[in-house]
Design brief:
It is a single chain. The protein is about 50% helix and about 15% strand. The chain has helices at about 5-15, 35-55, 70-85, 125-150; strands at about 20-25, 60, 65, 90-95, 110-115. It is globular, with a radius of gyration of 15 Å. α2 crosses α4 (about 125-150). It has four helices and five strands; from the N terminus they run αβαββαββα. It has a single domain (about 5-145), classed as Rossmann fold (3-Layer(aba) Sandwich), CATH 3.40.50. Strands 1, 2, 3, 4 and 5 form a five-stranded parallel β-sheet that branches. It is α/β, with parallel strands linked by helices.
Length: about 150
Amino acid sequence: MNWNAQDVELYLQERDYIDTAVIPLLPISFQSGIRAAAEQGEYTTLFSMHLERQFKGRMLFFPPFTYVDEPETMIEMLQKWEEKIMESGFLHVFFLTSDGRWTSLQEHLKGSLFYVPSVPLQHMEDKYKHSIMEDQLKKMMPDIVGGWQRSQ
């Protein structure tokens, strides 16, 4: 379920079954890292779409948490998001990113952080992009199930 009026309406009706919030973490850069940030954002967004399709009815995908600074400076804000989401009744919070800098900050989060290394997609045909996403999703399935088990 995505962050749109129709899906949120369904979430409100079925919230007992939708126990997982997913927050994509997307970097923004205006300097030399702009290309890498765009690549990571594209990859994370496309992967989120595949994950949502696989787990529709179990996960609600929130708007991306975008940041321009180092992840270390954003952790407090992200913790506030996490706190508000947990207070609203979600049992699990999953963070999804292609920015490897977040991996060292996992211990500051109550939820599960999933790092998905990005692959350049700009010159790839759509069918190959989707094939890569499906392969990555299959590899992540045990981690996702583990994320649910850890936070129970």
